[in-house]
């Protein structure tokens, strides 16, 4: 399977490292088909493409809201990863509360038939509410970084894949951070090159000599 990275990576010199859920999500990178969500790691950055998941206010039911786009985060800025279950409790809770109210009204009724009807409605509402709370609970991989986080649903991802993917993020960051003291940034293209380099190996630009007193 050939992946198309030309419109994905911020730099043409980046190297692909991993994609979350190789068997399921790798097809998203063929022919630029990014209609779903995917998280890709290069040797410099983490990319989330397709559906982006962001935290919602509790006023709007909590959970996550999805929008389409592209998010790029430098591995330098990643502060940690975790796997969490996030739910949208408001719809299910509303049904449960309605069921409790219906049961209360039924028990207060003097008409036996009305009592049975209201208790039946209450039972259905409470059961539906509990089912909805469970149904809307999803597991996400959370990647924390300075200034925000990435969230990605992992319904079809095994624990082994998740642990491996989180380990790759940690390893790639360590590799990048370990070379910071020996590298400098090219003033022309912004790529990292050897501290002693006089010419950038990426763009060929001559490097400025450090000022001496």
Give a written overview of the molecule:
- The chain has 213 residues and is α+β, with helices and mostly antiparallel strands.
- It has 3 domains: 107 residues, PH-domain like; 46 residues; 32 residues, no CATH class.
- Helix content is 32%, strand content 28%.
- The strands form 3 sheets. A 4-stranded antiparallel sheet has the order 1-2-3-4, with helices on one face. A 3-stranded antiparallel sheet has the order 5-6-7, with helices on one face. Strands 8-9 form a two-stranded antiparallel sheet.
- The protein is rod-shaped, with a radius of gyration of 26 Å.
- The N and C termini lie far apart (56 Å).
Task: Write a short abstract of this structure.
The protein contains four helices and nine strands. With 213 residues, the chain is an alpha+beta fold. It starts with 15 loop residues before the first strand and ends in a 19-residue tail after the last strand.
């Amino acid at each position: 399977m050939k992946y198309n990275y030309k419109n994905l990576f911020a730099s043409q010199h980046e190297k692909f490292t991993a994609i979350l859920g190789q068997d399921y999500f790798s097809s998203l990178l063929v022919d630029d088909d990014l209609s779903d969500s995917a998280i890709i790691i290069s040797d410099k950055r983490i990319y989330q493409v397709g559906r982006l998941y962001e935290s919602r206010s509790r006023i709007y039911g909590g959970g996550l809201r999805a929008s389409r786009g592209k998010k790029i985060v430098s591995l330098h800025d990643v502060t940690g990863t975790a796997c969490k279950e996030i739910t949208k409790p408001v719809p299910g809770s509303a049904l449960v509360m309605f069921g409790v109210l219906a049961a209360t009204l039924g028990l207060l009724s003097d008409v036996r038939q009305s009592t049975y009807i209201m208790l039946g409605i209450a039972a259905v509402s409470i059961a539906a509410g509990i089912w909805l709370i469970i149904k809307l609970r999803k597991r996400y991989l959370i990647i924390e970084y300075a200034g925000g986080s990435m969230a990605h649903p992992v319904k079809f991802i095994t624990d082994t894949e998740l642990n491996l993917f989180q380990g790759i993020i940690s390893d790639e960051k360590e590799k990048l951070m370990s070379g910071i003291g020996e590298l400098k940034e090219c003033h022309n293209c912004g790529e990292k090159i050897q501290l002693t380099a006089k010419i950038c190996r990426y763009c060929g630009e001559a490097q400025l000599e450090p000022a001496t007193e």
